[in-house]
Please model this.
Amino acid sequence: MPIGDLAPELAVLLTAVTVLLLAMVLAQRHHGWCAALALSGLAVAAGIAHAQAVAYRLTFSGTFALDGATAWARLLIVGLTALCIGMSPRWFASDRRHGEVYAMFLFSALGAMAMAGAADLMELVIGVLLSSVTGYVLAAYHRDWAISLEAGMKYFLVGALANALLVIGVVLVMGTAGSTAYSELSGSIPESPLALTGLALILTGLFFKMGAVPAHTWVPDVAEGAPVPAAAFLTVVPKIAGSIALYRVVALAPGIEALGLLVALVAAVTMTVGNLSALWQEDVRRLLGWSSVSQTGYALMAVAVAGLAPQALPALIAFMGVYGIANIVAFASVAELRGRTSITDYAGLLGSRPGPVVALAVAFLSLVGIPPLVGFFGKLVLFTAALEAGLAWLAILAVANTVLSLFYYLRVLSPAVFGSSETEAASLSGSARVTLWLSLALLLAATIAWSPLWSALPAVLLP
Amino acid sequence: MLTFAILIPLLAAGTLAVAPLGETVSRWTATGAAALSLLALVVVWISGGEGFRAVAEVPWVPELGIAWRVGVDGMSLALALMSALLFVVATAWPIDLHNARAYYAWMAFLAGVSIGLFVTLDLIVFYVFFDLSLVGMYFLIGRWGHGEAQHAALKFFVYTLAGSLLILIGIIVLALNMPTLTFDMRAMIDSPPLAAAGLVPGLVFLAFVIGFGIKTPIFPFHTWLPPAHVNAPGPASAILAGVLLKMGTYGLIRIPLQMMPETFARWALPLGIVGVISILWGSIVAFAQDNMKRRIAYTSVNHMGYTVLGIAVAGSALGSEAARQLALTGAVVEMIAHGLITGALFLIAGAVWQRTADYHLPNFGGLAGPAPRLTGAATLAAFASLGLPGLAGFVAELHIFLGAFAVYPWLAAIGLLGILITAALFLRMLRQMFFGDLPKERADFTDLAGVEVALLTALLALIVLIGVWPVWLLGLIDAGLLIPVSGAGG
Model:
């Protein structure tokens, strides 16, 4: 058993267990050390993942793919989880179970890593379940606050249903195709109604992880109710993993055109529903949640053209990466502002808190895709892939949605920048502020280093 | 050299954004940066050359065929020179401001971006600058505008982003249809992609026309323009009308006309009709406005209509080549002339607002008494705008209509009506503002100060110069090179 192939995952797992134990022995006021330990574990995992980035093989009896997509997913998941952990110490400082939250983050990240690398349907189920179960806990972490509980409950209910469908789908596909390993399924899934139903159910399970229609309803609630670091995590990390897992599944059946069409339709509905719902939100966190639904819709464009456009996979990874960074910057700004929610409370913030407002503006403009920010390149490669594969209608719809999205982002920004206010705004400072600047620096660095990053993205997948 | 012209104002903007400078220093930093850009462009102009000159290229994203490519031909050099000049004047223009340093930072940023848009030879870089100009103008209007500034800024941003994204789609389709993926404008002009007839070229052309049409703006996509102008501060209006609107027509010439000549020829007549509708609509609606700035704003729709008519004629592949060249020359001269004239008019409007905080024309009258210098400048600019011979507007419109009569005589005849209405509306405005009785509350109206006079004089002198001796400008533009060879069939 080549145990070293899973070294990054094992590093995260061991760190999670150690953090849990440490949180049990340390007094609550010292739980900040758990964050430090979690971060160092993630650093080790990232180092190993980077060292393994050149590998290109199936491992663990063909259940786990070590390829470019896994490498990028690992680095993104580990890096972005670290940023979410960075926001947390002050946020959870008064929480009685402060230290355990880091273990939850790590376990959830582990689930995401397993999901992204899965080359076997069973392995996929394990990854999805691990990521989901920990996600429910993270969403409801403020258990004295009804809205947080509601978010967790909604996430759990939608998730339980979606995961059940996923398992049924796996059973159907296994029954008709005779295997769960991707290497054997690839190209040999029969075009029977039963197998198609199974595939559609698997897709539904992954749509839940990505926050796509019809399993998107948890996203705004989680964005609003979950602790802000957890909201940032849940709207980014499982999505990145889910999108790569989805791409792997869709790429298994290149002959079945209905699959691509299904994803294209879901993409169209998801981006439109997300944007229309975001338009008149009065709560910035809820607005961020809906915006993240619409961003999922854009990302699905790349999945819809899997196999039709040569740049579909790099476009997907690039888009999810730049979306993830920008979304983390946005949530980090909100965290730095102590979770400030109502749009009206943002009026005139530029005067009293210029830092978070500028960061929020950059994040929003990147999410819209205003050049030269990296979000523009994400959309550029996405549109190019869609147009190359002949999905012009989807690209046009995405354009229309982008214009819509600008409207609601500006609804937050314009009072913040143009308005005026006398009241002082409180800030979280400490590591939350450091994280904000770090994530903003990451966004700008990705903007500058776009060209080498893009050429390093993988174009092919295992198996 | 062109890269310097872009980077100097951008660096100045960055400096202004972080360094704690006073208001006067900020203003002179912005003006100085624009002036240095102008100087760099003049150097390029003096060194001369044929076709694209002062070309430089640095790879950016080689896998996608994107590179930092700069270079100018006569048209873009003329537009860049005009923009730089207008930025010098607009930043030097005295205006009372809060947060002056940030205002001048955005102005300098916008200067770099606008000049960059005209001198780049890469479609993605073009798009980058196109969008950044929206961001800059959004913050200028929203933060330093008056009245419903935030609403106007929002409308402006959303509206024009819709246009720019259509352009992006068009650009991507063009690039995908090149033999190898590239966004190099020169390559696309030399071997136009999408030459065959069919649905796709038609749709791409439509995307470009709507996208650039929103920016220009042409009827029916002009509705964002009046609120944006009315609520923007005077110098920002001057930039918006003088520089940003030109991006639309410049794009229309550079991309659809030069890169898809055959499709353009097929759709030239509808475009010409839209141009004529803009001419008439702009002038008629302008006539009905009581708000001074709104009236000037609608004349922009009217004037850009002339430009679009000229471009449509140039790409029609009908009539003689000489006629089409005339029309295109006229269109480019109209862009320059309109930039200078409307820039001057909006600065004058800004001066009036600075003194009275009012744009309502019936509240004015008899200003010729207390403010003879303002009256003189406004009269000259208005006459230039309505196309009085001997001034710049006349040269442009003469060329456009000479060309148009040879290709679409009926359209040209209808379009001429627009000139009549424009003349009437400007004369009425001058009468309302400057003649008749002076209202009591305007008794202490002060005339233009020294700096204002000097800046306006520079613009107006250039307008007169182009009017009486246009040869140098026509030689610089050299429209013969702009019309693509494959379009010269008729």
